[in-house]
Amino acid sequence: MQVKQISRTTGLYTPLKLMLAGALLGLSGSVLASVSVDEGLNACIQAAKQRHQGLVTQWDINKGPAGVDFDITMLTPDDTRWHVDCRGDGKIDEAKQLFGGASYSILSSRKTVNEMSARATAVGVYNNATMVRMTYTVSGLGKAYYHYYLATPDGRYAQIDVNAESGQVDSTRSERGSSWW
User: Fold this and answer.
1) Residue 86 covered by a domain
2) Domain count along the chain
3) What is the pLDDT of residues 87-110, one digit of tens each?
4) Do the domain assignments include residue 61?
5) What is the pLDDT of residue 2?
6) Least packed by Cβ within 10 Å: which of 37, 129, 136, 181?
7) Do the beta carbons of residue 37 and residue 68 sit within 8 Å?
8) Angle, CA 117 vertex, CA 112 and CA 122 arms, to 5°
9) 125 domain residue, yes or no
10) Residues 98 and 54 in one domain
C-alpha cells in the first residue's frame, strides 16, 4: 500500500490519501486498495447531503469488521440533526433523526471556508497523522471552527482548530495517552 504524504511547504491538497495507517486501524492494504479513506469520506458526505440537505457538523472515521466506515452528522435548514452511517464505498447503511441541536442559520452564516479546504489545511500540521474526527461549531464568542482530531504515529492525539471564516489554523494541541474526544 502506498501512502501519499501532504506537502507542508506548499500546502497542497495532494488528494489527501489518508489510507489510515494500518497500525492504527489494523487493516490490510487490500481493504482500502480501491477507495482511499478520503475518497470514501467525501463520497459519504455527498451521499448524506443528497439525502439531507444541510451542513455537515461532524464526521468520524471508524474501523469495523467490514473495513472502514463513517458516521456523518448533518444539520438541516429546519434545525433537524441527522446521523448517517456510511460504508467506506460511499453507500449509506442507515440514517436516523437526532434530538436537540444547533441553529442552522447561525452555523451556516459563520463559515466562508468549506470543510474540504479546512481539512487540507489541518492535515498539513502534523506529518503522517491520521484524521479520526471533525466537528464544526461556533464558539461562545461567535467564531466558527472546524475542529479536527488526529492520531499521530508516535502515539499522541492532536486537535487542530481551523477558523471557518479565514481558513487559518487558530490553535493546536496534542497529548499522549488515550484520546480526549
Assistant:
1) yes
2) 2
3) 888 888 888 888 877 788 888 888
4) yes
5) 30
6) 181
7) yes
8) 115
9) yes
10) yes
